[in-house]
């Protein structure tokens, strides 16, 4: 006897793996002449490390970048043949772990370099690694005046790095003068490491121009459909849809308030939908709607609707008055991300960036669904 379908009890997060693959292939076409990697840190930007990495591999990606060694180990279990760089560098005392799982640290300090070279000597093997130089980001990386020291140390042992790299601070604003400054500084570092492959461009750098491509590009946000360059139309395929259940539909009267702090006062008789989603699911309190500031958005059958009142831990409220008689029922779903509302739409309202919206999806109490797994090339 067939069982009835399970009732909707939580939000539904759908990741279109075919869209991820299309995005990688589109970026690979733009960066023709350079290898195109895939940055899969933070659980592949909230989309799921295992499934999304497989989609990129099927599309043709062979070089992957994680932030932590734990992420890299999980990725190695998923993709045994991939080339994996750890952007966080070499964690003290962990060299044997990198060797065991065939991971390449992005070495960014002299102590890291010394520890890695010691591991090479102890194993009588030139273990692969990248050298990361800080050309103006002000985070991890060798200082530029350390380049000659790095060069002497690796030459003394005959060590050849797999790659030298840096990271752009302002690539999302292509006309920013710092981009050209960093490019020139990176080229000065490259001159000290002739014949070593180089990598500078993230998603925005890749889109800014071929001068930034070198031998490898490292797209991240654009792979997942997010906007990489400010002020430009986003050309990437949307890959993430988030829907949440409607828990209750009710009438409310002029003058009544919605949510904690009575921050939203109704100025008309209204119909509202209470949604099973809150800040515990990564839907930020900054998406709350007040009488003085519009909040986040949801959509029902393509009609975009406002969030009103403060977002609470588990609940949010949408004003559905403008739906007229086409009212939803409890148990139906509201779109939070999808065809009507992009990651960047919500980010703009929240005063943040699409990266934060996407990576916060990891917090959500959502059921995950994957569709459209591409065929491997």
TrEMBL record:
- Any keyword Ligase? no
Record keywords, A-Z: Isomerase, Pyridoxal phosphate
Q: What residues bind substrate, as annotated?
A: 139, 313
Q: Which InterPro entries match?
A: Ala_racemase, Ala_racemase/Decarboxylase_C, Ala_racemase_C, Ala_racemase_N, PLP-binding_barrel
Essential cofactor(s): pyridoxal 5'-phosphate
Molecular function GO terms recorded:
alanine racemase activity; pyridoxal phosphate binding
Q: Which reaction does it catalyse?
A: L-alanine = D-alanine
Question: Where in this protein does the record say N6-(pyridoxal phosphate)lysine is found?
Answer: 41
- Kind of enzyme, top EC level? isomerase
GO CC, any one term: cytosol
Q: Which Gene3D superfamilies match?
A: Alanine racemase, Lyase, Ornithine Decarboxylase, Chain A, domain 1
Q: Which domain of life is it from?
A: Bacteria
> Hey, what's the signal peptide range on this chain?
none
**Which GO BP terms, alphabetically?**
D-alanine biosynthetic process
The record's listing under HAMAP family reads: Ala_racemase
Q: What the protein does?
A: Catalyzes the interconversion of L-alanine and D-alanine. May also act on other amino acids.
The protein's name is: Alanine racemase
Q: Organism, per UniProt?
A: Paradevosia tibetensis
What's the name of its gene? alr
């Amino acid at each position: 006897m067939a069982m009835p379908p399970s009732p909707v009890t939580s939000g539904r997060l759908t990741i279109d793996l075919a869209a991820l693959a299309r995005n990688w292939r589109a970026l690979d076409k733009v960066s023709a002449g350079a290898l195109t990697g895939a940055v899969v840190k933070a659980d592949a930007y909230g989309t799921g490390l295992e499934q999304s990495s497989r989609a990129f591999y099927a599309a043709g990606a062979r070089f992957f970048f994680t932030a932590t060694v734990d992420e890299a180990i999980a990725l190695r279990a998923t993709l045994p043949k991939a080339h994996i760089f750890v952007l966080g560098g070499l964690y003290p005392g962990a060299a044997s772990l990198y060797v065991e799982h065939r991971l390449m640290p992005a070495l960014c300090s002299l102590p890291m370099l010394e520890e890695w070279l010691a591991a090479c000597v102890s194993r009588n093997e030139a273990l692969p690694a990248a050298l990361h130089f800080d050309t103006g980001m002000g985070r991890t990386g060798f200082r530029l005046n350390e380049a000659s020291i790095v060069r002497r140390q690796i030459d003394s042992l005959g060590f050849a790095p797999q790659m030298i790299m840096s990271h752009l601070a302002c690539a999302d604003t292509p006309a920013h003068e710092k981009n050209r400054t960093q490019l020139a500084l990176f080229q000065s570092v490259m001159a000290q490491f002739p014949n070593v492959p180089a990598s500078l461009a993230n998603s925005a750098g890749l889109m800014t121009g071929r001068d930034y491509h070198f031998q490898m590009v490292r797209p991240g946000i654009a792979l997942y459909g997010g906007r990489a360059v400010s002020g430009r139309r986003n050309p990437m395929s949307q890959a993430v849809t988030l829907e949440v259940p409607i828990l209750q539909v009710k009438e409310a009267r002029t003058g009544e308030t919605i949510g904690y702090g009575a921050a939203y006062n109704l100025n008309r008789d209204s119909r509202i939908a209470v949604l099973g989603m809150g800040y515990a699911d990564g839907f930020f309190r900054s998406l709350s709607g007040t009488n003085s500031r519009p909040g986040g958005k949801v959509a029902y059958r393509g009609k975009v609707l406002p969030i009103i009142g403060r977002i609470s831990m588990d609940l949010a409220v949408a004003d559905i008055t403008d739906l007229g008689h086409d009212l939803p029922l409890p148990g139906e779903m509201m779109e939070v991300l999808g065809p009507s509302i992009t990651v960047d739409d919500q980010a703009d309202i929240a005063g943040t960036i699409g990266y934060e919206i996407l990576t916060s999806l990891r917090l959500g109490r959502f059921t995950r669904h994957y569709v459209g797994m591409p065929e491997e090339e």
